[in-house]
Specification:
Length: about 325
């Protein structure tokens, strides 16, 4: 922020230098000391180059803090004061440059500091004017009038800048809140959409399952419903045989026919056997380091897998 103020002041200073050179060229008067004005503008240009390359006032003030802005304001006050003295003093056409400095002060500092700089500039103007005039009431009225105008302008600038900053901060906070609420609404909308899709799928498949009386058809329908709702690549239902010691695949989707026919898992072995024995569901992408499975070899092609026991009454029938 401070660095931006100093560099923006340097850009305005380039415009002032160009304006002064054009003015003294097209309006030569005996009151203007042209060689000294040109020398002063050369100094201002050199000062701007120091600002551009980050040499002054940053190195003098050891950083980009308030000291750099103080140095900039004081330097500009000195520059404008010398310009006014060299171009006619009380009759100079460049008093308006003090207003630009006051605008910079109103933006960069607090109200007490802005008023202090306003008083300093008013004192300088009062001194320059008194050197060229006697002490009539007219002169006093003009001087005091300008002092009051500068104070009023500083207060107005400070108030307006403060209001703009407060409104900008309020808008920024409101925009951030609105954006977060929009993201939350979007997330909930997507979640609701997925839930409605799943509910619709379950409803359609449940109506079809009610019409089925064949156990095999019910199992196939259940597998298809699970695959559609979960978006899984493969789903299977394994049931215990008559001796209740071995699991076989009774219905499946996404698995090869050979795997379905040849898969036999004893209770307590592998993941399916462990789930039936313990009666607990198991998610295979979780940390399984503290669990032991007999004859378990994790396939690299399987990124995640969910195994859930099938319980009828109090009896476990499969998974």
């Amino acid at each position: 922020m401070r660095l931006g103020i100093v560099r923006n002041a340097a850009r305005v200073r380039w415009l002032v230098i160009a304006y002064v050179l054009l003015f003294v060229y097209f309006n030569p008067t005996p009151l203007i000391k042209l060689p000294l004005v040109l020398a002063l503008m050369a100094m201002a240009a050199a000062y701007n180059l120091l600002v551009h390359f980050g040499i002054f006032p940053f190195k003098l003030t050891e950083g980009e803090g308030p000291g750099a802005v103080y140095a900039t304001v004081l330097g500009d006050i000195a520059l404008v004061t010398m310009l006014i003295v060299l171009t006619g003093g009380a009759h100079s056409q460049f008093y308006f440059l003090y207003f630009l400095i006051l605008l910079l002060v109103a933006v960069a500092f607090t109200l007490p500091v802005a008023l202090a700089f306003t008083l300093l500039i008013s004192t300088i103007y009062f001194t320059i004017y008194s050197l060229r005039h006697p002490f009539p009431m007219e002169w006093l009225n003009v001087s005091l009038g300008l002092i009051l105008v500068w104070f009023a302008m500083t207060l107005a600038c400070y108030y307006l800048v403060g209001e703009i900053r407060r409104q900008s901060e309020s808008c920024r906070i409101a925009y951030g809140d609105l954006q977060s609420h929009h993201e939350e609404v979007e997330r909930l909308s997507q979640k609701l959409g997925r839930a409605l899709t799943d509910l619709s799928t379950i409803y359609k498949l449940s109506r079809q399952m009610v019409a089925k009386t064949n156990p095999r058809e019910l199992l196939d329908m259940a597998v298809r419903m699970c695959r559609e709702v979960l978006g899984a690549e493969s789903v299977s239902i394994m049931l215990l045989g008559k001796d209740r010691g071995e699991l076989t695949i009774e219905a499946a989707q996404g698995l090869s026919e050979e795997l379905v026919k040849n898969t036999r898992v004893k209770v307590g072995e592998r993941v399916a056997g462990w789930v039936v024995k313990e009666g607990k569901p198991l998610l295979l992408d979780q940390d399984l380091s503290g669990m032991e499975f007999k004859k378990f070899h994790k396939r690299a092609s399987v990124k995640s897998s969910l195994c859930v026991p099938l319980v009828v009454g109090e009896s476990r029938s499969g998974h």
